[in-house]
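Duplicate of #3305? Posting structure anyway:
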């Protein structure tokens, strides 16, 4: 499931291909290819905007390297038993749930909030 499912051109309609149907897998792969191409285009456009603002290739490489290291460190901490900090519903004060969607959701009141677009 995409984190960007709230975008209008992404209907989040991926389904699990069942019974090993090659045609279904082909459709799913085509959808995923389309999404990767769209994200690649968006990423390149954002990078072009940043270059226009004065950022250099080295800035991007450092940001990628730093983020990759931080994600690996976080993954290792979780594997070592660190508990992930749960965001609480501001109304019910219970942990919000996230099923791979962009927004976290309260199962009691339905309140949705985007706590981070890059989980
Ligand atoms: Zn709630």
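Output from current build:
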């Amino acid at each position: 499931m995409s984190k960007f499912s709230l975008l209008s051109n992404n209907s989040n309609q991926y389904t699990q291909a069942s019974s090993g149907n090659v045609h279904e897998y082909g459709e799913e792969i085509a959808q995923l290819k389309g999404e990767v191409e769209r994200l690649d285009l968006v990423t390149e456009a954002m990078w072009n905007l940043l270059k226009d603002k004065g950022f250099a290739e080295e800035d991007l490489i450092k940001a990628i390297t730093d983020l990759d290291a931080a994600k690996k460190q976080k993954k290792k901490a979780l594997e070592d038993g660190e508990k992930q900090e749960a965001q609480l519903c501001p109304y019910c004060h219970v942990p919000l749930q996230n099923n791979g969607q962009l927004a976290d959701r309260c199962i009691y009141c339905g309140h949705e909030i985007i706590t981070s677009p890059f989980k």
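Confirmed duplicate; merging threads. The pocket of zinc ion is lined by residues 89, 91-92, 106, 108-109, 111 (CB under 6 Å). Residues 96 and 106 are 5 Å apart (CA to CA).
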